[in-house]
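Before a computer can learn anything about folding, someone has to put a protein's shape into writing. The outcome of that step, for a single protein, is printed below:
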Amino acid sequence: MAAMSFAADRASARDAGARPELAPAWVHARGALDVSAPRVMAIVNVTPDSFFDGGNLLAPETDDPSVSVAARLCRSYRQQGADILDVGGESTRPGATPVAPDVELRRVLPVIRGLVADPELAGVPISVDTRHASVAAAAMAAGAAIINDVSGLADFDMARVAADSGAGLVIGHLRGEPATMMRDIRFERVLVEVAAELGRAVERALRAGVAADRIAVDPGIGFGKTAEHSAALVGAADYLMRETGCPVLVGASRKAFLGVVGGRPRPVEERLIGSVVAAVMAALGGAAIVRVHDVAATAEALRVAWAIRNASAAARSEAEEVERGRW
C-alpha cells in the first residue's frame, strides 16, 4: 500500500508540473537531518585505492585502519561544517577491483565504532558506504545511522537491512559493476532514464518496508556515465526529486568529468575549484546533500551561495510587490 500511494503521489506531482513538497527532515536511525538547506557529507575513505585519498587511513604495514587518524580527520571535518560522515571500505572508482565483504568489514567497523564513541562527534550521523547488505547490517549494529548504497540495491537484501535497522538509505544509480561500468555507456535521455531507474529502486525499498522519509537518491555522477551525462545530472536534482519523491544527494567531488566539461582535463589534485562549483550548482539545483572531500571550502561556498540566494529572492519579492502596487 505504501508503494502504491507513493507512486500515485509522484504521478500526481509530475502531472501537475509541480515540485513536490518534501518533509524538511531526512530521517535516519539516530534521528533526523534538517534538509531545508543543503547539507555536507564528508568522505572518509578507509581504502588503499580510492582515486583521491586512498591509503590515508590505513596502516601501511598491516592494511588495518588507523582509528585515531580517522577520528582526528572526522573531528576536523565536523569543525569545518560536515553534517554526515560517510565511511567506506571499498573503492568504487571506475575499474576498481571488488573487495570481499570480510575485508570491507575489517576496514570500516573499527572506524565506525570509534567515531560513534567519540564525544566530540556526538550527534553527527555516521554513514556506511557499501554495496553489500552484510556490511551494512554490521555497520548499523555498530552504530551507523545511514546506508549509502551506490549500486542501487543490487544486493537484494539491502532494502531489508535498511528497513529492519531503521537506517536512512541512499540509493545510488549504477548500471553494472564499478569494475566494468564504463565499458558500454548507453543513454538516450540520461536524466529521464536515471530518474525512472531510481524511481523503480525506491519502490522496491518501499515494498521492503523502508519508510519513505528515510530514502534519498543519488544520480551516480561518473558511475557509468560520460562527462556530458554527469554534467547534465549535477544540476538536475529538482527533477529527480519530483520524479522519485525523495531528497537528492549529489557526489561530484574531484571527479574526472569536472576537467573535461571545463575544457581542460586536470589531475585529481587540481579539481578543487570544479568540485566546489559543482557542489554549489547541485545545491542551487535542488540537492539536499552534497558528498565531498573538501569540506571547509564546500561548506563556506554553500553558506555564501545560500545567503545570496535568499537575499536575492527577498529583494525580487519586494520588487514584485512594488510593481503590483503601481498597477
In short: The CA atoms of residues 315 and 321 lie 10 Å apart. The beta strands are 25-28, 31-34, 39-45, 84-88, 126-129, 146-149, 168-172, 215-218, 249-250, 289-292.
